[in-house]
Design the sequence.
């Protein structure tokens, strides 16, 4: 059983995390993928966009805002057990993927290009994404992926302008 000390010196175990918290933070357990959990979480985030390709910008924006707020909360809970920016937490990748697609049409080209570019920007973390990681309380986990999503969405948008 993996344990971590909290700031108050108490030891918490992963058993103290509820099923719902684990399900949200790991995006339906995709964060437990043995290979590339961030990529797995990003792929799972595409499912509602594929199922509902006519999703409106307003609905997707609400998903981003709600996902961000819930993501900060569950990320903070996971940090008390696993330490800083646990790899199993992939709600940040899901929300970042939704940010990528926020103002793009939901087509196979845009989904594919958005996914690829989001993963690239999430890995290389150009400024200020890398600096945002240092924020505490779950905000750092979430906001660096929001920045990567903005970079990826803008890049796909400008690519489509020139095609």
Sequence:
């Amino acid at each position: 059983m993996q344990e971590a000390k909290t700031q108050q010196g108490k030891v918490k175990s992963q058993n103290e995390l509820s099923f719902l918290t684990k399900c949200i933070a790991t995006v339906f357990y995709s964060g437990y993928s043995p290979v590339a959990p961030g990529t797995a979480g990003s792929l799972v985030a595409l499912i509602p966009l594929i199922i509902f390709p006519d999703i409106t910008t307003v609905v997707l924006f609400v998903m981003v805002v709600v996902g961000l707020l819930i993501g900060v909360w569950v990320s903070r809970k996971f940090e008390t057990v696993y330490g800083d920016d646990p790899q199993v937490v992939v709600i940040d990748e899901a929300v970042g993927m939704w940010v990528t697609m926020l103002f793009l049409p939901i087509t196979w080209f845009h989904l594919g290009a958005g996914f690829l570019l989001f993963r690239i920007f999430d890995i290389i973390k150009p400024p200020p994404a890398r600096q945002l990681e240092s924020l505490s309380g779950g905000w750092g986990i979430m906001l660096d992926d929001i920045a990567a999503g903005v970079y990826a969405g803008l890049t796909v948008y400008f690519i489509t302008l020139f095609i």
